[in-house]
Amino acid sequence: MTIIVIAGGLSHERDVSLRSGRRVAQALRDVGREVIEADVNADLVPLLRRTPDAVVVPMLHGGLGEDGAFREVLEVLNVPFVGPTGASSRLTFDKSIATSVVRAAGLAAPKQIALPHDIFRELGAPALMEGIGAQLGYPLMVKPSRSGSALGVTKVDDASGLPAALVAAYAYGSVAVIESYVAGTEIAVTVLDDGSGPVALPPVEIRPESGVYDYESRYTAGQTRFVTPAELSDDALLAARELAVAVHRALGLRHLSRTDMIVEASGRPVFFEGNVAPGMTETSLAPLAFEAAGRELGEVFATLVDLARA
Amino acid sequence: MTEHSRHDTRLDRFVDSYSQRTNGMRVSAVRALFAVANRPEIVSLAGGMPNIKDLPLPEIAGSIADMITSNGTQVMQYGSGQGEPALREQILDVMALEGITAHADDVVITAGSQQGLDLVTRIFCDPGDVILAESPSYVGALGTFLSYQTEVVHVGSDEDGLDPTALRETVARLKKAGKRIKFLYTIPNFNNPSGKTQPWERRLDILSVCAEEGVLVVEDNPYGLLTLDADPIPAMRSADADVIYLGSFSKTFAPGFRVGWVLAPHAVREKLVLAQESATLCPPVFSQFAISTYLATQDWQGQIEIYRDMYRERRDTMLHALAEEMPDGASWTRPAGGFFVWVTLPEGLDSQAMLPRGVNARVAFVPGGAFYADGQGARNVRLSYCFPPADRIRIGVQRFADVVRRELEVMDTFGIDASPHELRRPTGPGPDLT
Questions:
Q1: DSSP per-residue codes, B385-426
Q2: CATH code, A169
Q3: ipTM
Q4: How many folded domains does chain A comprise?
Q5: Where is the active site (chain A) (predicted)?
Q6: CA pair distance A91, B141, nearest whole angstrom
Q7: Which domain CATH number covers A27?
Q8: Please, where are the H alpha helices in B158-238?
Q9: For chain A, first and last CA: distance in Å?
Q10: Looking at CA atoms only, how far is residue B372 from chain A in angstroms?
Q11: Which residues of A are catalytic?
Q12: Closest-CA residue of chain B to A223
C-alpha cells in the first residue's frame, strides 16, 4: 500500500492545507507507514495511475479539495481515499446547502439566506438588504458560501455594516450566506468512524484572546485558548456530541468530520458549519479532540487508511 | 476510547515569555493568500524577485570552482566582522558609478542590505523613537523598524518622490510634540513600491532640510544601476558624507549570495562592525569571495546592461497593458528604472479586500497598505514587472483589470463609496513582498 497525502491546491487556504498535509504525513511516517506527499497539479493523475496500491489522504482545504470535485475524480479513478465521498463533500462544503440539509433533518441551525451577487444587482440592493435585516434581525453573520478558515466572514451589528460585509464575502465567491447570529459558547466536535459507527470525540471549546476566532486567532499559536472537553454542563456536552453525530449522518459523511457549533446559554447546541477535511495543523481543533480521546494522530489516520483500503 | 480530564491550552507553552516586540508577530490571511502566488496557474505581479536567468552560469560556476581550488581554506573559514578587504575595495568601484567617492575602511559588508538596515536601526533606535519614511515605503524596512518598536512617520510625496516641504513640516510638528527623530529612510531611485525617482535638485533639497534640522539620512539604493531610460543620477551620499548609504548586489548580480553593504561615517561604522560581530560574527565569507571573484573575472557592467534591456522590455509591456486594460479612474506611475509600478485604484476600492478575488482570477498583486505603517495605501497596489516574461505580464494585467472592474461592479451594487479601511500593520518582508 502506498499512502499519498495530497495538500496544497489553488484555494485561498493553500497555506493551511500544506501545513495540515505535512503534519499528517509525518504522523503516518511516525507509525511506520510509507507516505508520498503530493500537490494538486498535472503530475497528480499520472502519479495515481502508476500507483495501483494507492490510498489517498486528501488534506486539501477549500475549493476543489473540499467541494467534492477532487474526491469525485478519485472515485472515477477507483482510488480509495480517507474521508467523506465526493457527493457528501459537495453538500457539506457549500454552507447554503449544508445548513438547509441540517435544518431539514430537524437539527438546530441558524436561519439563513443564501444569495448570489447578481440578484442584488438585478433587484436592487437597498430593498433586498432591508428585507434581509427585517427577516433575520441584527446582529447577523455574513459568509462566503464556499470558503473556510473564517476567510471573508463578518459579524454585522447593524444595517450600516451589511454592504461592506457582503462586498467582503463576494470577494471569495459569487454566493454569500447571511445567517442569524447565535450567541453562546463556540465549540468544535470531531466525529470519528473507524469502522464501528460514528463517535463524537470530546468537544473543544474555543476562546480567542481577541474575542473573534478569525484567521489570525486560528493559526497564530498562543492567540486562542482551547479547553477540552468544553466547560459546559454534562447535558450540554452530551447534546453537542449527539448533534455532531446527527450532522455527520444527515450529510452522509464518513470516516472523519468536524462540526462547528454554538452552545446557547440554555445548553442547546446550534450547528453552523460542517467540515469534510478538518484542519490538522499545530493549531487545529481535531488533533486536540484526538488527544483528549486518548488517540494519536498517526494511529487515527493509519486506521482510516486501512478502512478506506478495505 | 479513554478520555482524558479537562485540558486547557493555548498551544504554545512559551506564550507568556515572548518579548513585547514579538507579540505583534502574527500570521495573516493576506500572507496566507500569497501561498498560491508561486503556482504556475497564477500570474504573480506581486513578487520582487530579480530575474537572473540571463546570468552566465557556466562561467560563474567555473570561476567559483577555481576559487575553491585555489583558496578553499580561506573562503570557507571565518572572516572579518567588517567584511573582506578586497571586496570592500571593489565596492568602491560599484559606488563610483553613482558618483560616490569613499574609503574602503568605511564600508561594512552585511548579509544583504536588509541586514544593513537592521544594524543601522539597532544602533540608533530605542523603542518609541521616530523614523521618517517616504509615502509609501519599502515593506521590509517598515517591518524592521517596527520590530525595534519605533514609530514610523510617513512624509508626503509628489511625482518626484519625497517632498522637502512636507519633510520640513513633519519634522517641525514632531519636534514640537517632543518626539525624537532618529533618521530619514529614503529610496531615491525607483522607489519600492512607488517606482518614483528623486531628481538631483530634489535630493539636494532633502539633504538641505535634514542638515538644517539635524536629521540623519539613510539612503537605500538597491535599484540605482537598473536605470532604464537615462544615466544614473548621483547618489545622495555623493553630496553629503554624513549620509548612511545601503548598497546591494541582489539586483545587479544575484540575491542568493545575500551580500550587501553599508557605507557610513567613521564613528558609525565602528558601531556597525561591533553590532555585526554580535549578530553574526562575520558576514558570509564564501559569498563575499564569490562576489569578489565575479567582479574580478566577469563583465559585471555588461551584465547590468543585459538586465536593463530585459527589464526595459518588461516595464514597457506592463505600462502598455495598463494603458490598454485599466478602467477609468485608475492611475499609475511610470518608473524610469527598478521593478515596480504603483497603481492608484478608482475611488473607494480597497486593494486588500480585492486580493481573494485576484486569487480566484489567477493573478497576484501586493495591496498598497503593506507599504505604510499607518493604514494608508488602501487604494493602491504594487505591481512588479521584474520576474514574469512579457506575455505573462500582459495576461496578468488583463486579469488584474478584470478584478478591478468586477470589484467596482460589486461596490456599485451595494452603493459603497469607500470601503472601511482598517489599520494594517506590516509584519516584515516575505519572499513575495521584497
A1: -SSS-HHHHHHHHHHHHHHHHHHHHHHHHTT-SS--------
A2: 3.30.1490.20
A3: 0.83
A4: 3
A5: 13, 149, 284
A6: 46
A7: 3.40.50.20
A8: 164-176, 200-213
A9: 11
A10: 20
A11: 13, 149, 284
A12: B10
Mean pLDDT by groups of 10 residues along chain A of 310 residues: 93 90 97 96 93 95 87 95 96 94 97 93 91 94 86 92 92 93 95 95 92 81 90 97 98 97 97 95 93 96 95
**How big is chain B, counted in residues?**
434
Number of Cβ within 10 Å of residue B237's Cβ equals: 26
Model pTM? 0.89
Residue B23: Cβ-neighbour burial (10 angstroms; 0-12, 13-18, 19+): exposed
Residues A15 and A103 in one domain: no
Nearest C-alpha of chain B: how many angstroms from A129?
9
Q: The C-alpha cell of B266 is what?
A: 567613521
Same domain, A152 and A253: no
Which region, left, alpha or beta, applies to residue A126 given φ > 0 means left and ψ of -120 to 50 means alpha?
A: alpha
CB A158: neighbour CB atoms within 10 A? 10
Q: Do B355 and A225 touch (CB under 8 A)?
A: no
Chain B residue closest in CA terms to A126: B414
Each residue of B363-379: pLDDT tens digit? Answer: 999 999 999 999 999 99
User: How many CB atoms neighbour CB A47 within 10 A?
Assistant: 15
Q: Which domain holds residue A167?
A: 112-180
Interface test with A, best of B7, B12, B352 (most A CBs within 10 A): B7
Q: 475524480: which residue's cell?
A: A73
Q: Which residue in the set B2, B36, B356 is minimally distant from A14, CB to CB?
A: B36
